[in-house]
Write a structure and sequence with these properties.
The strands form four sheets. Strands 1-7-11-8 form a four-stranded mixed β-sheet, sandwiched between helices. It has a three-stranded antiparallel β-sheet with strand order 2-5-6, with helices on one face. It has a two-stranded antiparallel ribbon with strand order 3-4. Strand 9 (150-153) and strand 10 form a beta hairpin. By secondary structure, it is of the alpha+beta class. The longest helix has 15 residues, at 198-212. It is globular and about 60 Å long. The protein has helices spanning 11-22, 83-96, 129-135, 138-141, 171-181, 198-212, and strands spanning 2-4, 26-30, 40-42, 55-57, 59-64, 69-74, 102-109, 123-127, 150-153, 157-162, 185-192. The protein has one domain: Rossmann fold, CATH 3.40.50. Forms a heterodimer with PSMG1. The PSMG1-PSMG2 heterodimer interacts directly with the PSMA5 and PSMA7 proteasome alpha subunits. This is Proteasome assembly chaperone 2. Keywords: Chaperone, Nucleus, Phosphoprotein. Belongs to the PSMG2 family.
Length: 244
């Protein structure tokens, strides 16, 4: 199961859009929940006039059996105080559906990094203990950097470290609940700022592709992903024409 967190810059959701559009995934259902703001809109992946009027809602499920991949796309923010009920419902569905593992695409505020997090790549990962056992040293082979824990009380006590994902929305709760429930989950995230976050989405989805090899890697990383038709309406239509 691949899904976004509703986090800073909506980077995870934009990256999921690229996966669904590129792999031409089939919509197989909806994820019904009262934890998300209700919304409805036109088909974000329309390819012709005939399918442009199909309706989409706030949480939909897509499938690609050939890659044993299911994708949950979330398109609206959470209702206040609904993080925990959403996590409980989602993880219950993960278990009942027998998903082998879950990958969450997320983001975190760049301006709230500590000194250690300012070094090197802006990309980080987290693995639950069960997934870490299953993958062995794969992340080290990929030369990926694990999300650092930060001081719980900076300047007062720097020895007590905690996981802190500012701007990550439901990410931390999903991860910690998966740890306690024995669910194999990975979180892939990018430090970023609000604005035109399309470049961040490309970076994050290429990061995902290094591991899962969803598409064949090319020299020009952006050219391997198919831009959804709905992106023409984003950020004042500021995408380079070549991306269409």
């Amino acid at each position: 199961l691949l899904q976004p967190a509703v986090s800073v810059g909506n980077v995870g959701q934009l990256a999921i859009d690229l996966v669904i559009s590129t792999l031409d995934m089939t919509k197989v259902g909806y994820f019904y929940t009262d934890c998300l703001v209700p919304m409805v809109g036109n088909n974000p992946y329309a390819t012709a006039e005939e399918n442009s009027t199909e309706l989409s809602i706030n949480a939909e499920v897509y499938s690609l059996p050939s890659k044993k991949l299911v994708v949950l796309q979330i398109r609206s923010p959470f209702i206040k105080n609904k993080y925990r009920p959403f996590c409980e419902t989602l993880l219950s569905w993960v278990k009942s559906s027998r998903c082998a593992r879950v990958v969450v695409l997320s983001s975190s505020h760049a301006y709230q990094r500590d000194d250690e997090q300012l070094l090197g790549t802006p990309l980080r990962y987290l693995l639950t203990p069960d997934l870490e056992k299953a993958l062995g040293g794969l992340m080290q082979e990929l030369n990926w950097k694990e999300m650092e824990k930060v001081a719980a009380y900076p300047g007062i006590n720097d020895t007590d470290k905690v996981l802190h994902i500012p701007g990550g929305g439901v990410t931390k709760l999903l991860f910690t609940e998966s740890c306690s429930k024995g669910i194999q989950m990975a979180v892939l995230l990018k430090f970023c700022s609000e604005g035109d976050n399309i470049p961040d989405a490309f970076v994050l989805v290429n990061y995902l592709n290094e591991w899962l090899q969803l598409v064949k890697s090319e020299v020009k990383a952006s050219s391997q992903w198919k831009i959804p038709s709905s992106w023409r309406l984003l950020f004042g239509n500021g995408l380079p024409p070549a991306l269409f």
